[in-house]
Amino acid sequence: MASMTFCDSSFNARVPQAQHECKGSRFLGFVVRESALESTLSELKGLHPKAVHFVYALRAYQGGQIIERSSDDGEPKGSSGVPVLNVLRGWEMIDSAVVVVRYFGGVKLGVGGLVRAYTQAAKLALESAKELGEIVPYIERGERAVCVGYGELRAMHYRVKKLGLRVVGEEFGQNAVTLHIQGDLAALQELES
């Protein structure tokens, strides 16, 4: 299975992507881009003031390696954040996070019950996002600086556009222009060849 990522075109923090109930406790699952995790957590805490836990896990590609992080947010250690992280690993998600909001139902679930409940909420959230077409193949992206003479500038802009890349900055020198280009790493490598 190729690595996947979350495309947040229709994300709405007011509507959970999944809901799971276990012995009276409600678990609301949300899939978000890793870059939006902090703002989403703040928004969810404002929208769900009676919820007792905001558990999350994330996987991101940074500096040539996969970074993983999780939080149990007050649940017993290893009972919630790590199970959510394991679901992200199983789906091979990159630059994505899952947040599970828990409303306590009055019955303690025990560590095993918490693991199962948080795992199920994360799976349901990812399945729902997939059904909505929000889980897409991960494409590794990057940025390059390319220096061209003024006579080659127009041709380079054409080539950048043809490869599906984007010029995000230009520095004009006396004899040349440095273009800062972002996009798919494979296309960037093709541009350099």
TrEMBL record:
One CC-aspect GO term: cytoplasm
The Gene Ontology biological process terms listed for this entry are: regulation of translational initiation
Q: Which residue ranges does the record assign to the Impact N-terminal domain?
A: 23-126
- Species name: Helicobacter canis
Q: What is this protein called?
A: X-Pro dipeptidase
Concerning PANTHER family, the annotation shows: IMPACT FAMILY MEMBER YIGZ (PTHR16301:SF20), IMPACT-RELATED (PTHR16301)
What's this protein's family per the entry? Belongs to the IMPACT family.
